[in-house]
Amino acid sequence: MGVSRPKNKFISTEEEAINAAQELGFPLVMKVVGPAHKSDV
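and the corresponding structure tokens:
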């Protein structure tokens, strides 16, 4: 259908986050998966 979506990565470490940010570019949005109190991150 030609619907575009943002690039994404699933990361587990700080180093992976840094590499993903360099690869994906900015602006960058991060979403926490798992913790009960996501707003505390």
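(Above: one complete record from the training split.) The chain is about 25% helix and 0% strand.
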